[in-house]
């Protein structure tokens, strides 16, 4: 049932939002050098890597300077990238990841190998289901970039506090998820985006 829901609503989303995709693509191309999309290796179901698709919000090759983005004043982020990130519009291309079968609408947010390699055996259980566009942790840490920007050591904060906190919520989701909980998470995510706009 979940896969049917994912595919149907991903297709509907892509069709309905196609004008938005076009406008954002034109805006990105006119704003900075480089492609419209940014592909990044993330760890998915059963520890299999896949290419996460996002609208590009950083200057080309900026990821070589670090994987974490720190607040809205990160010099690697393009002028329009900050706004796209705040509205979560950079995540829209992940509808294609859902169609490809890499992701679901709801599930633990996929992480990069660098941080997955630090997981304990129990934490590795988050890789037992498909990653998602949103989850309980995404709602709680909606302002994650701002939290990191206030830290003297953002990566230490991310590894020692944020990742473990997210995984606790993800493991709870794995043990208790159902269709109605997924609907609740989607509703809470949309509400958070609207309220924060």
* Integer-rounded radius of gyration: 16 Å
- How far apart the termini lie comes to 32 Å
> How would you spell out the order of helices and strands?
HHEEHHEHEHHHH
Mean pLDDT: 91
Give the beta-strand count: 4
Overall SS class: mainly alpha
Number of helices: 9
Please mark out the parts with pLDDT under 50 across 5 or more consecutive residues, or reply none.
Answer: none
Strand order of the largest sheet: 1-2
Major β-sheet, in short?
Answer: 2 strands, antiparallel
> What is the global morphology?
globular
β-strand amount = 5-15%
Q: What is the total domain count?
A: 1
* Helical fraction: 40-55%
Structural account:
The chain is mainly alpha-helical and 197 residues long. It contains nine helices and four strands. 50% of the residues lie in helices and 10% in strands. The strands form two sheets. A two-stranded antiparallel ribbon has the order 1-2. The protein has a two-stranded parallel ribbon with strand order 3-4. α5 links the parallel β3 and β4.
Provide key terms for this protein.
197 residues; 50% helix; two-stranded antiparallel ribbon; mainly alpha; single chain; 9 helices
Give the helices and strands, then pairings:
Blueprint lengths: L1 H15 L1 H14 L5 E7 L5 E7 L25 H6 L7 H7 L3 E3 L6 H4 L15 E3 L1 H5 L3 H6 L4 H23 L2 H18 L1
Parallel strand pairs: 3-4
Antiparallel strand pairs: 1-2
In summary, what is this structure?
The chain contains nine helices and four strands; from the N terminus they run H-H-E-E-H-H-E-H-E-H-H-H-H. It has 197 residues and is mostly helical. It has a two-stranded antiparallel ribbon with strand order 1-2. It has a two-stranded parallel ribbon with strand order 3-4.
